[in-house]
Amino acid sequence: MHPSNGIILRHYPLDIGFGGPEPPKRKAPMSGKYGGEGQFLALLSTLTSGAVVPNGTCDANLYLLPFSCSAIHNQVKERHLGQYLTERFTKSYLDIVKKHYPCFNKRKGADHFFVCCHDMGWTAIQSAAAEDIDVSNNVVWVGYSADLSNKPGQRFVYGRDVSLPLLARDQEKINPFAKLKNLMFKSSFDPLVPRNGPLAFFAGTLLNDGPTRARILKLGWATSKKDAKWKTLDWKTLVHTAERSTTGKDMHAMRSMLVLDGHIDSASYDRFFTTSKFCLAPRGMRVWSPRLGEAFEKGCVPVILANGYSLPLNEDFDWREFSVFHDDTLPGLTSLPLRLLGIWNNKSYYDSLRRRLFEVREHFLWPNPHPKKDFDLWKGASSAGPPIKHDIKDDATGLVLRKLFKRSVSLMTLPEL
Fold it and tell me: pLDDT, tens digit, for every residue of 309-320?
């Protein structure tokens, strides 16, 4: 089957085998840090409604394990207990799937996938994987924390697992399928509109949020959000001074960046995100940063400071055409202000980054984001219906499904068990 002919996607019932006083948490988050998880599951539900896996028949290209790891984890406040509850649930769930449904064993689970945008990532199923080599080697994880560094507790396998595009905080303002109502956001995406704000912008937690952000603090770039001067500085003049300086150019470049230690009000955040030349996206405790989603949302060239990050849709698009990669080690970060100033001075190159960001943004955005109310997983889809073929579009959801589909096509050459 070719992607243009459609894709058959089924999901398992959420509550199989789970009666009793503690049914699994059904409400997936639709907004906030992990909102992409609920949004993606909600979008998938529109493709699988009435398409529960029928017991004894395997007619789909892909099989979704429909639990929300964030929903399960967030039932408790203590992080380690949340991890334990998630692993316990997923192990029991996978045990039942393997025991009662033949589809998992048909391809040893290689056409099965789950969605987990929480920082726990693949470790959501590590208890099941520890006891079953097929789960460990074959089940596909779709999520945010796509770390290729093989650090303890991380497992992202390039070519098998899928790095999910990030949900933008205010995506509805520039959704390509929605009406643009806010002129500020319109102009922020026009590649020809000049950006008269700081050379680079970041606002967020720096202390105790990973080694990369600690290095930024050590370099002295950060300004306290309590120091109100940053709100009234003439950033256009500061950048111009850095451009014209003949001595101390690195210091002038650093002073023309606005790096705030702490979260600020939304109006100020949006103002600087939509007027800055570059927006820093340093990794926190994990490689991903929600600022990448906001870069597409607000038209700001992202600076990716996350060594080993497998970026979303990087098999479909060359991120070097619309973003800046920079080494996140201490020696590497030292040279960043001067490098960004050099790119800004090369106007034709900088404008090409902005234009390409504008061209590709619709592929990284979610089509018609669902309301922010938490999503009730698979409500009303409790019986197996006939298979439905779906065309694969080129928005964020479609491109992720295309990746999964290609994997299922490659499995067709394998003998069935």
Answer: 999 999 889 999
